[in-house]
């Protein structure tokens, strides 16, 4: 996991593991929606999730193009965009895939304003 808003495309023509910006026709819209979420999240907006084992990982403005981060062939985000004209971003909300129950209220507080801002944009 991480703390970042990722947007299409997740796949790239070269299928390099990382570092290839794979721009969609609606790139500006996707960046706008990703920033709408990230800019209201106290950790995500810093662009420095500081996840264990990935302390040096950074995301400007708390967002990333999926393929630039890591290439995913056949991902749901790209499939829905290409075949169903569905604009979808992926939200990585925690370094931990399954946070302990005691941490869930804090996770809600971290994400509440982001979720409301995102819904307003949609």
Automatic annotation (TrEMBL):
Q: Which domain of life is it from?
A: Eukaryota
GO annotation terms (biological process): peptide metabolic process; protein processing
Q: Which residues form the active site?
A: 92
Q: GO CC annotation: what is one?
A: extracellular space
Identify the keywords attached in UniProt to this record, alphabetized.
Answer: Carboxypeptidase, Hydrolase, Protease
Q: Which family does it belong to?
A: Belongs to the peptidase M14 family.
- What is the protein named? CBPD Carboxypeptidase
């Amino acid at each position: 996991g991480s703390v970042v808003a990722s947007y299409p495309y997740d796949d790239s023509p070269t299928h390099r593991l990382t570092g290839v910006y794979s721009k969609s026709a609606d790139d500006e819209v996707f960046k706008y929606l990703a920033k709408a979420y990230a800019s209201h999240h106290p950790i995500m907006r810093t662009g420095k999730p500081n996840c264990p084992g990935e302390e040096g990982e950074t995301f400007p403005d708390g967002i990333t193009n999926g393929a630039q981060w890591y290439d995913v062939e056949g991902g749901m985000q790209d499939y829905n965009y290409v075949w169903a004209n569905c604009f979808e971003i992926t939200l990585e909300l925690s370094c931990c895939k399954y946070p302990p129950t005691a941490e869930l209220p804090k996770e809600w507080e971290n994400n509440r304003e982001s979720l409301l801002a995102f819904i307003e944009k949609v």
